[in-house]
């Protein structure tokens, strides 16, 4: 499938959005520095209590499965399968499911299941291993009561790669059945709806997720986009691939990586529209597609409707709660955004990307007129991730409006080093603020801090 769109997004995409033939998998992308990762984990731990209260619902975390293939290049597959199982479980309203990012803080570590239960605030833990060889896949899994350490069940699932969706279904149903045996049939059927019936498309999709999860890297974002496009090439109705491809453009915008914003936003709109059109019952597609429409196109009400639907389908989907919080901030409803954000943080208590939550918190308090509190939250984000542009902007404006021009100018100095082309005149593309008052205060604060017109 082609669309005749040629945009320039650096060498990684070879000037291809969706026109050139697929290339080979590119260079390996470095992970974030160990020091930064450790600081992020520390920030997350200091924000939430070290021992969380168990939710009223049965609660579960899916830990990273061990890659037993003997090939590190297959890590993406094992990680992707775990992410898909997590997403499937999060569709059950009767469960409280910890988000992928928090669970993956334990990857590669020897863990004490009881400690995991305390740190994530869950009763059950699902762990296992995956072996992929030729066209065969074997998955072993065990469900453990984190309070006692007792194994509730353990099983092995085998089949051809083409059967991977059935294997995921079997494993998820066994876990749900052991925890909540009275789960309604309709919920189980909804979980079985798979994003694509083509394994080759699904494989590229999992590679895209692996790159997309490498936050902070432009190369990784470009790689993710190329993988999602290749998945779409193979399945033109792959809603989740459209949604995540659209979200890559949001990542490009907020990190000042766009080279032709007008053309790229047009392409993002195309992808997001397809995502919500094809994925009306897909929380991943609705979340990524809906948020892209809100963030890049300013369609806040439409975006919120898609996020609301995503949360109806998947009440434990932390990213949907976070994105809806952002939309409510942009709508001038900060005090409604904060409960959404608190829910997301509880679902994702050890997220290495906790600065993102701090950034939303900061912007919510800014829109509410609480400038000192806004600056404090942004400082937490910047302390962990000094090159994170959104909290730098919010902090600069907050300090300026609070009367602390020295701190505001310090933030602006860092901001201009990272985003030297930014001007007051180009802020609209970053902030789809619905209320004129919020826009005027933001621009005034940044102008006082030293952002040129």
Task: Name the features.
6-stranded mixed sheet, alpha/beta, Rossmann fold, Serine Threonine Protein Phosphatase 5, Tetratricopeptide repeat, 453 residues, 56% helix, disordered N terminus
Structure in a nutshell:
The protein has 453 residues and is of the alpha/beta class.
Element layout with pairings:
Elements: H1 34-47, E1 59-62, E2 66-67, H2 75-90, E3 96-97, H3 100-103, H4 113-120, E4 124-133, E5 136-145, E6 151-160, H5 164-179, H6 185-191, H7 199-212, H8 218-234, H9 239-254, H10 261-278, H11 283-297, H12 300-313, H13 318-330, H14 334-347, H15 354-367, H16 371-384, H17 389-401, H18 405-418, H19 436-449
Parallel strand pairs: 1-3, 1-4, 2-4
Antiparallel strand pairs: 4-5, 5-6
Helix pairs in contact: 2-5, 2-7, 7-8, 8-9, 9-10, 9-11, 10-11, 11-12, 11-13, 12-13, 13-14, 13-15, 14-15, 15-16, 15-17, 16-17, 17-18, 17-19
Mean pLDDT: 85
- The level of helicity is 55-70%
Question: How large is the share of residues in beta strands?
Answer: 5-15%
Shape: globular
Low-confidence stretches: 1-49
Q: Please identify the top-level CATH class of one domain.
A: Alpha Beta
Which oligomeric state applies?
single chain
Strand count, sense and barrel status of the largest sheet are: 6 strands, mixed
What is the CATH T-level topology of one domain?
Rossmann fold
Look at the structure and name the CATH superfamily of one domain. Answer: ABC-type transport auxiliary lipoprotein component
User: Which sequence of SSEs, written as H and E, runs from N to C?
Assistant: HEEHEHHEEEHHHHHHHHHHHHHHH
Question: How many E strands?
Answer: 6
- Tell me which CATH architecture of one domain applies here: 3-Layer(aba) Sandwich
Broad structural category:
alpha/beta
- Tell me the Rg in angstroms: 22 Å
Could you tell me how far the N terminus lies from the C terminus, measured between alpha carbons in angstroms?
A: 43 Å
């Amino acid at each position: 499938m082609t669309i005749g769109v040629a945009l320039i997004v650096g060498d990684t995409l070879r000037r291809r959005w969706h026109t050139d033939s697929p290339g080979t998998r590119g260079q390996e992308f470095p992970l974030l520095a160990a020091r930064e990762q450790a600081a992020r984990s520390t920030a997350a731990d200091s924000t939430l209590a070290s021992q969380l209260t168990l939710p009223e619902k049965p609660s579960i975390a899916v830990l990273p499965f061990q890659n037993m293939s003997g090939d590190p290049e297959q890590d993406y597959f094992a990680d992707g399968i775990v992410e898909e199982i997590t997403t499937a479980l999060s569709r059950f309203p009767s469960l409280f499911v910890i988000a992928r990012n928090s669970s993956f803080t334990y990857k590669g570590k020897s863990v004490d299941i009881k400690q995991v239960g305390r740190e994530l605030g869950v009763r059950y833990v699902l762990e296992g291993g995956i072996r992929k060889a030729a066209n065969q896949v074997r998955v072993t899994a065990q469900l453990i009561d984190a309070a006692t350490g007792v194994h509730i069940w353990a099983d092995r699932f085998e089949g051809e790669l083409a059967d991977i969706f059935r294997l995921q279904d079997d494993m998820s149903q066994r876990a749900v059945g052991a925890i909540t045996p009275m789960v309604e049939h309709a919920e189980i059927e909804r979980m079985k709806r798979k994003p694509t019936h083509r394994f080759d498309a699904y494989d590229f999709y999992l590679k895209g997720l692996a790159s997309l999860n490498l936050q902070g890297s432009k190369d990784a974002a470009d790689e993710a986009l190329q993988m999602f496009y290749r998945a779409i090439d193979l399945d033109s109705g792959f809603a989740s691939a459209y949604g995540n491809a659209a979200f890559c453009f949001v990542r490009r915008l907020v990190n000042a990586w766009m080279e032709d914003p007008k053309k790229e936003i047009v392409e993002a709109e195309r992808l997001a529209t397809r995502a919500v059109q094809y994925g009306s019952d897909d929380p991943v597609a609705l979340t990524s597609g809906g948020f892209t429409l809100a963030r890049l196109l300013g369609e806040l009400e439409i975006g919120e409707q898609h996020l609301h639907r995503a949360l109806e389908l998947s009440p434990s989907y932390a990213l949907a709660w976070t994105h809806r919080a952002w939309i409510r901030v942009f709508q001038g409803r900060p005090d409604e955004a904060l409960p959404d954000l608190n829910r997301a943080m509880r679902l994702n208590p050890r997220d290495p990307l906790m600065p993102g939550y701090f950034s939303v918190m900061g912007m919510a308090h800014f829109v509410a007129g609480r400038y000192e509190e806004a600056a404090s939250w942004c400082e937490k984000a910047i302390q962990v991730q000094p090159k994170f542009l959104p909290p730098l902007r919010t902090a600069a404006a907050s300090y300026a409006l609070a009367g602390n021009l020295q701190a505001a100018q310090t933030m602006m100095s860092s901001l201009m080093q990272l985003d030297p082309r930014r001007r007051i005149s180009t802020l609209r593309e970053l902030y789809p603020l619905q209320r004129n008052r919020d826009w005027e205060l933001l621009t005034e604060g940044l102008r006082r801090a030293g952002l040129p017109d």
